[in-house]
Amino acid sequence: MANLWGGRFTEATDASAYRFNQSISFDRRMYKEDIEGSIAHARMLGKQGIVSEEESREMIRGLEEIKEDIDSGKLVISEEAEDIHSFIESVLTQRIGEAGKKLHTGRSRNDQVALDMKLYTRGRVSETDGLLDKLQRVLLSVMEQNTETFMPGFTHLQKAQPVTLAHHMGAYFEMFIRDRHRLADIYQRMNTCPLGSGALAGTTYELDRDMTAETLGFTGGPTRNSMDSVSDRDYLIEYLSALSVIMMHLSRFSEEIIIWNSNEYRFVEIDDRYSTGSSIMPQKKNPDIAELVRGKTGRVYGALMSLLVTMKGIPLAYDKDMQEDKEVAFDAMDTVNDCLREFTGMLSTISFNKDIMEDSAKKGFTNATDAADYLVKKGVPFRDAHSVVGRLVLKCVGSGISMDMLSMDDYKAESPVFEEDIYEAISMKNCVEKRLTKGAPGRERMNEAIRFYRVYLEDMAGQE
Ligand code: ARG
Prior knowledge:
- It is built from 20 helices and four strands.
- The protein has 464 residues and is mostly helical.
- It folds into three domains: 15-105, Orthogonal Bundle (Fumarase C, Chain B, domain 1), CATH 1.10.275; 110-153 and 164-359, Fumarase C, Chain A, domain 2; 362-463, Fumarase/aspartase (C-terminal domain) (Ribonucleotide Reductase Protein R1, domain 1, Orthogonal Bundle).
- The mean pLDDT is 96.
- Bound molecules: arginine.
- The site of arginine (ARG) has 10 residues, from helix 7.
């Protein structure tokens, strides 16, 4: 397949240099965006009288047919072309003749690729947001069903104070709210159209850049500086950064699920559909999906670093280094969206061993602070109360029991202030129920949070 730029050359590119230079093997996935951009350009060329109305119509029809044929598999994208832009333009010219040769009037592959990449990325940003929405819906339903599922809250991975499963899931819901906010912010900032910037310095044709921006749904209008337009990949770096944060969240969540699924914890059981076995150990049921999500976080961070480093030394305007944005970015987008899909599937089918969770909260003395608070409320200074309860905990550890199993005599032996109502005061239900500060796990507060999340999801759905 001929290059778009053969005229000035007397020799063909060296075969391996050609392979090194090509991008069709990976930019082929942007064929829809490339055609969408070309149709908008062709329509505008016709309206401006830069090509005739008839030529414009022929181009548009030809481009639409190419898209249909690629979609249906009738037209195979040939890897002999240098890139997707050359491929589509040359097929168009083969099919419609002279008019096809006019498509590139007032355009360069530099503004073309800037446009394609933005259109493509914009679509993926929306896809990520949709997947986060699905994950949040699963989280919300887990929360709704578990406002009274008591479990230990941890600090230093040591049991600390009792919380509920709803509260723990709510922490992740919050992280994903911030993630979606970041995506919306990026989407909004990237919503300007680079088409019509030419190679770097605009063109001498009377292009209507407002028209193409509008046709392509860029509500921010055309970009303001043509040199910046062809060399801006900030939006991609921002997206990769948002994706990295999403992966950091998913990875922490995965880590917890792996711990909770372990034989030692048994807080959860991952469904058979989302676990795998061992080739040698028949008893094993492994949390591979969660481990892979945790593992894939590294390659997404890698993509962000890679693009930051690629971009840092590039003089204005377009340089071929920028072709390196695609493989890493595509890989990161695919990876994160796959991780979100699989993680959501795993979470929606997981079972929570509620009794084991509650038992673990009791055995871990997560109500020790409440026992101390009980004494404080009866007039004992906090520091003394802390030490009384510390001795009681020591006694429990010695006999392998939880605080609710101590006798009244045991309590009295450490402090005469203890009465029968201590058992009530340290019950898991009470310990959690009394935590009513804003953001705390007490049922009232949790119900408020759940109501907020419902409205949030409705609002987000309404914005689409
Ligand atoms: N494949 C190139 C890229 O991805 C397209 C732009 C080529 N422009 C050029 N002047 N060689 O960046």
